[in-house]
């Protein structure tokens, strides 16, 4: 017997009743109007662990790609339930499904015509259907990649990125590594430039068995670290930890300054103070990345912060996660830095 949560607009509650009856599915319906946050819903509902599937009809929702990816990752940590997504055809669905496919989400159904057959196949774990779906996902990924123009990296260009935090334990080192991955994907040869007393001294100690000493730099779990500049690299990322007044001028002198903060009530004063300090330093390019920010929290601050984006949850910093945030928030700055804007 299939245990199923069905999330959709109220008028779609009975859309797949025939399919559910044929599969002997026990269905619990939730109106999307009552679910402002998918991640919050999955965290609060105590019966999620008992479900076989969660079918989510995304038509009409305003959840960001990052919000959806974060919800998927959270569900995988705490439940064996599988997610099936249904969305209308379009560029946004193509991009979202590309990232969900990268996260190995199998149930990605385009709501074109009558999707009942595809929904039934996904709920039955039809291997033939999954094989066809994998081919579709590869096509979707290729189409999504074509949507983003590659960055033209000017020969001889050296990129400096400074990452700082509004408060402790807000994700500065995590974002340093995420930016390293993203710059690598764009074609840069990045390295994390270490500072004395930084978090990377602790990382070195924790991963002593995974350190590789190379000529002029060190690799830890495949991430390059260096204490000085070298012709081997064309992008340097510095983790400054919590923003200190004495470092403002240096941080703002970088080609790109990244402020990492949070939007919870107790985090906002630190975020505002750090943002004001950086603005006084007149950064060349500034973007704020906000950890664990809900859609409601983003609405509260984005009018004051200029360029900002909510970060998707990504538990494994050593592997690249979704690059949606960086495409929208970081890439425009890099385009200007590279002289393309």
Largest sheet features: 9 strands, mixed
Q: From the alpha carbons, calculate the radius of gyration and give it in angstroms.
A: 22 Å
- The fold-level CATH name of the largest domain is Rossmann fold
Q: Which range does the strand content fall in?
A: 15-25%
Helix/strand order = EHEHEHEHEHHEHEHEEEEHEHEHEHH
Percent of residues in helices comes to: 25-40%
How confident overall, as mean pLDDT? 86
Please characterize this protein's 3D structure:
There is one protein chain. The chain has 341 residues and is α/β, with parallel strands linked by helices. It has 2 domains: 2-147, Rossmann fold; 159-337, P-loop containing nucleotide triphosphate hydrolases (Rossmann fold, 3-Layer(aba) Sandwich). The chain has helices at residues 17-22, 38-44, 65-78, 91-102, 116-124, 127-147, 172-186, 199-206, 248-252, 268-280, 295-305, 324-329, 331-337, and strands at residues 2-8, 25-31, 53-57, 82-87, 107-110, 159-165, 190-193, 211-214, 217-220, 223-226, 235-242, 256-261, 286-290, 308-310. It has a 9-stranded mixed β-sheet, with helices on both faces. The protein has a 5-stranded parallel β-sheet with strand order 2-1-3-4-5, with helices on both faces. Strand 8 and strand 9 (217-220) form a beta hairpin. Helix 4 (91-102) crosses helix 6. The radius of gyration is 22 Å and the shape is elongated. The termini are far apart.
